[in-house]
Design a protein that fits this description.
423 residues; globular; disordered N terminus; single chain; mainly alpha; 0% strand
């Protein structure tokens, strides 16, 4: 099979910290698709359909969160007693990232996307039919594990994109991902109120099946590119990160950025709804999630900046925006205008950093799917740990404690990468 741009990348040890593309190759080689797929109208729909599929599948991870009060009422429980269902979704996604995402380097992605989409569809339908929280948790776990389709598609988009527009193509998919997250939190809650939580899961199942299979159809036909154990990519992750300073840097910096965002954003509902804070209703606090749309708007702009100025400069600017947002969040504990401004800034910083770091991760090694898995898992781990610390910090020190956790994560993410230099 013709080699993709990523497979012709020079070794990571010789890669510049600010580079965002593989070693130079001929224009024809950079633009040549990896495999054969539909042409004409299907080819023009390739990127938009992948972005839309990413939005729908990413939404599945956060589908249960806004529906928890409705699920609790239906099952004769309380929202706090079923809140763990949201954590089950995160656990399932983490497992899917580790086991399924690296397969993009070793199996036919067209077939894998189709299979995972059908598995997610079946699990979502099972969730809608669940009679108890145990069955619902199992269905949500499986659906979330199969929802790693976006992380299979991003490396493919990077491979097929022209080198001078690679970050912009990656940004289009990332914009779809963030749009899906916002839609799950806002539209999912509204649809649940109107039609019930079970109908939301059924609707998600239908969308997942239609868009997943449509996306699989337009993907290039690939032959198996590696021999050996099926999960060899999972075993290769530690060594790959160790050998590639650029990948290591992208992982750590995004872990710091995502941790800061996660600490602030997951604790924000406490500030907005508690009597000591703003005393909003849950529905009104949920609409604050619309500020996440700033990420979808910023992603294409960030992609163009990465293509023009390089990943390192964009990440530095993103960290500057995030650092500015932390004191604004602290002030937002008493001033709503500051809180709104901080919400926009932190989303802009998160997505700009994500576009830059993920583009770097995808183009710095010869195993883009495995590198992408390492990158996403690192960010996920940073966010999960920061969220775990933010809750107790809010309980002991209030909103100021949450802001301190976010600030500390930014400092750790940046200083750790500054200390380690490329050898």
């Amino acid at each position: 099979m013709p080699s993709s741009p990523s497979s012709t990348t020079s070794p990571s040890s010789t890669t510049s910290p600010s580079s965002t593309a593989p070693a130079p190759t001929s224009t024809a080689a950079r633009r040549k698709p990896s495999g054969n797929g539909p042409s004409g109208a299907a080819a023009r729909l390739f990127l938009p359909l992948i972005a839309l599929c990413t939005a729908v599948t990413a939404a599945n991870i956060y589908l249960a969160a806004p529906l928890l009060p409705l699920i609790a009422h239906d099952m004769g429980s309380t929202p706090s007693a079923v809140a763990w269902l949201a954590s089950v979704a995160q656990l399932g996604y983490a497992a899917g990232l580790l086991f399924f995402a690296p397969l993009g380097d070793s199996v036919n992605r067209r077939r894998l996307v189709a299979v995972l989409s059908l598995v997610a569809t079946a699990a979502l339908l099972a969730a809608a039919a669940s009679a108890g929280t145990g069955a619902l948790a199992g269905a949500v776990l499986v659906a979330s594990a199969a929802t790693v389709v976006p992380q299979l598609l991003v490396p493919l988009v990077a491979e097929r994109a022209p080198a001078d527009r690679r970050a912009r193509h990656v940004a289009a998919v990332i914009a779809g991902l963030f749009t899906g997250v916002v839609a799950a939190r806002v539209l999912g809650g509204l649809a649940g109120e109107a039609f019930g939580w079970r109908a939301v899961f059924v609707g998600a199942a239908v969308l997942t099946a239609v868009l997943g299979l449509a996306t699989a159809y337009i993907l290039p036909v690939e032959r198996r590119r590696r021999r050996g154990p099926l999960f060899a990519g999972l075993v290769a992750i530690p060594g790959l990160v160790r050998r590639s300073p650029d990948l290591w840097r992208a992982c750590v910096r995004q872990a710091g950025m995502y941790g800061a965002w996660s600490a602030l954003w997951t604790s924000l509902a406490l500030l907005l709804t508690e009597d000591e804070g703003y005393g909003m209703t849950t529905a009104a606090a949920g609409l604050f999630g619309l500020f996440g749309l700033a990420a979808s708007v910023v992603a294409p702009l960030a992609g163009g900046l990465v293509d023009r100025f390089g990943a390192a400069k964009v990440v530095r600017c993103a960290y500057g925006l995030a650092a500015l947002s932390v004191p604004l969040f602290w002030l937002g504990g008493h001033v709503m205008a500051a809180l709104c401004a901080a919400a926009v800034l932190v989303h802009a910083a998160l997505v700009a950093s994500h576009v830059a770091n993920q583009t770097l991760a995808l183009t710095t090694t010869s195993a883009p799917a495995t590198a992408n898995t390492a990158y996403v898992v690192a960010g996920f781990a940073g966010g999960a740990l920061a969220s775990a610390l933010a809750g107790p910090a809010f309980g002991h020190w209030g909103w100021g404690g949450v802001c301190a956790v976010a600030g500390a994560w930014l400092v750790l993410g940046w200083t750790a990468t500054v200390v380690r230099r490329v050898r």
